[in-house]
Amino acid sequence: MAANRSTNADRRARIEEMRRAEQARERRNRILTIGVSAVVVLSLVGFGGWAINKQSEKKDQEAAAAKAPIEGEKDWDAKDLGRNHVETPVTYKMNPPVGGDHHPIWQNCNGDVYDKPLAKNHAVHSLEHGAVWVTYNKKADKGDLDKLSAKVKKTPYSLMSPVDDQSGAIMLSAWGKQVTVDGASDPRVDAFFTKYVNGPQTPEPGAACTGGVDASGQGGKAMGQ
């Protein structure tokens, strides 16, 4: 009997020891889990703060770019640019034109790239809607044109086409604004896009850049006049 009592006591002692060991493991696991979770949370908070700061910096840079003057830019007073819709030929004072009377139907400008010259009176209507018009002549480098084409294709409210008789190899125009650039890598390209794609110079902000004249020269009814 005494032997049995001793065996039972030993068994209970081992069970109790195993229980304490299990409880100790559980406590360590909880502490480890809490520690890892804290590190993750702090990392996420830190990353979130960094991302917010970067986003704020980007917005500040864009705002600064939108206000900064662009070297070599030509500017025309909006009061001197007619905005009548006419279906007769228009003679413009600048080439490419940056404003003036124009056709009632605009040229599609939703990132459209054209390989043939456009009717200027349609393109001017696109500028009235807030588009930036990238133009080039035969002196332009093909590599630059490829890069500019890619930029235009991913930018709503922009279009690109050749203008063989323009003075500069590559020129950018918006309503009342124009600059000749040295190439696709010229920092004035990004500055001009940032400042004038549907920018503050736009007479009709938010007006359509689709539903107008397409590459075939065909277009729908005049809208957004």
From TrEMBL:
Record-annotated membrane-spanning stretches: 31-52
Transmembrane is among the record's keywords: yes
Location of the region described as Disordered in the Swiss-Prot/TrEMBL record: 203-225
InterPro entries: DUF3105
Keywords from the UniProt entry: Membrane, Transmembrane, Transmembrane helix
Pfam families with a match to the protein in the record: DUF3105
Protein name: Membrane protein
Species of provenance: Streptomyces laurentii
Lineage start: Bacteria, Bacillati, Actinomycetota, Actinomycetes, Kitasatosporales
